[in-house]
Design goal:
- This protein is α/β, with parallel strands linked by helices.
- It contains 7 helices and 10 strands.
- The chain has a 7-stranded mixed sheet. A 3-stranded mixed sheet has the order 6-7-10, with helices on one face.
- Pfam families: Peptidase_S51.
- This is Type 1 glutamine amidotransferase-like domain-containing protein.
- Keywords: Hydrolase, Protease, Serine protease.
Length: 218
């Protein structure tokens, strides 16, 4: 699987160019599924948050980029409808667009639904994450980012071997000093990235794509 891990979505030409490279085709020729599930695990998100993402009215450019087709993949529904229905939907998609919220909640439903087990068999699929939709791919998110009360700890999928501190300087509590304290407790390499930065991962090769600010720790 190919990853484009963002803080704020496809916010500039450099990140959009990286997305097109991963797709291997123009955005207008690609079939997408959007995943709003993570929003429901975060206390600051509402039904309106999920709707804005799905409707392409989110501040994080994703759904509104001009895709050939767009569908909604709600992970909490998948265990009740059977893999024979939803697995073909994912296999036919070129890209999954995964919104933010709480990464531990998203991780839980990726495992419960079976999506986490399916992903390794989809080497051509592109995963584009926003915030928690990116953090879910890391080994740990740090206790400060766990908002779902039922989360057993801060561990996530560990598909990549580094952690991500998103929204650098976008909020008062997301300064570089805050990121440095957060990274010191993780025990893994980590990146702090702002809204103009993404991390591209292909076959284990990591590349930072940025028109903004970012820092690597460890």
């Amino acid at each position: 699987m190919k990853l484009l891990l963002t803080s704020g979505g496809v916010t500039n030409p450099s990140i959009q160019s990286a997305l097109v490279q991963l797709l291997g085709k123009p955005i207008g020729d690609a079939n997408a599924l959007c995943v709003p599930t993570a929003t429901y695990g975060h206390p600051m998100c509402t039904p309106g948050t999920a709707w804005r993402f799905v409707a392409g009215r989110s501040p994080s450019p994703m759904v509104d980029l001009g895709w050939k087709s767009m569908g909604l993949l709600e992970l909490t529904a998948l265990p009740t409808i059977g893999a024979q229905r939803w697995v073909p939907w994912v296999r036919e998609a070129d890209v999954l667009l995964v919104d933010g919220g709480d990464a531990t909640y998203l991780c839980h439903w990726m495992r419960e639904s079976g999506l986490a087990d399916l992903l390794p068999s989809l080497p051509d699929l592109v995963w584009v994450g926003v915030s928690a939709g990116s953090m879910v791919m890391t080994p740990r998110i740090g206790a400060d980012f766990v908002e779902w009360p039922s989360a057993p700890d801060d561990r996530t999928l560990g598909i990549v071997d580094f952690s991500i501190f998103p929204h650098l300087d976008a909020f008062p509590e997301n300064t570089l000093a805050d990121a440095e304290r957060w990274a010191a407790d993780l025990g893994v390499p980590a990146y702090a990235i702002d809204e103009q930065t993404a991390i591209k991962v292909v076959d284990g090769s990591v590349e930072v794509v940025s028109e903004g600010q970012w820092t690597k720790f460890g």
